[in-house]
Amino acid sequence: MEETPPPASHHDANPLLRASNPQVSTLEQDVLDEYARLLGNVNKLESKLADLSGDPSSLTLDGLRLLERKTATVCTLLKASVYSIVLQQQIFNESEEQARADEEEQQFRERDDSQGDFLGQGEGGGDEGEGGYYGVERDVSFG
């Protein structure tokens, strides 16, 4: 609501509202001016409310229905935007987790391969060649 300047008749009717009054300090004059503006705004509001009460309520209801539809549309669009952002974040997080898991699996395989070399099993992991983990198979006779 816009502020309206006080009508000039208020200043003329009340000598305390005149800026030239020596009995009123500057601060008091400012307060009185604000009260005069407030009175003008209240009077303006009163006239608007009187106009609205004179209008048929169907026009007011139609305006409110239109406002409700627009508000519902904005709310739906906002929810869709939030859902899209949440979904994108979830997809991003899942892809990061998958990349991290793939990296850990690669590190595990590299570490496992290097431990196989340390144990003297060579590149193949020790299950190829002469007997794999258990060495060369030979006939063992007892007796």
In total, the number of domains comes to 2
Helices and strands, in order, run as HHH
Overall, the morphology is elongated
Strand content: under 5%
Which residues sit in consecutive blocks of at least 5 with pLDDT less than 50? none
Task: Give the CA-CA distance, first to last residue.
Answer: 115 Å
Described by its quaternary structure, the protein is single chain
Number of strands: 0
Averaged pLDDT, please?
Answer: 77
Radius of gyration: 44 Å
* Main β sheet profile: none
Helix content: 55-70%
* Class by SSE composition: mainly alpha
Number of DSSP helical runs: 3
Brief digest:
The chain is mainly α and 143 residues long. The protein is built from three helices and no strands.
Task: Provide key terms for this protein.
143 residues; 2 domains; 3 helices; 68% helix; 0% strand
Overview of this protein structure:
- Its main location: nucleus.
- It comes from Aspergillus taichungensis.
- One of its GO terms (biological process) is cell division.
- Belongs to the DASH complex DAD3 family.
- It is a single chain.
- 68% of the residues lie in helices and 0% in strands.
- It is mainly alpha-helical.
- The protein folds into 2 domains: 1-54, no CATH class; 72-120.
- The model has no long low-confidence stretch (mean pLDDT 77).
Summarize the SSE layout with pairings:
Elements (H helix, E strand, L loop, with lengths): L7 H6 L12 H29 L2 H62 L25
Organism: Aspergillus taichungensis
Subcellular location: Chromosome, Centromere, Kinetochore; Cytoplasm, Cytoskeleton, Spindle; Nucleus
Keywords: Cell cycle, Cell division, Centromere, Chromosome, Chromosome partition, Cytoplasm, Cytoskeleton, Kinetochore, Microtubule, Mitosis, Nucleus
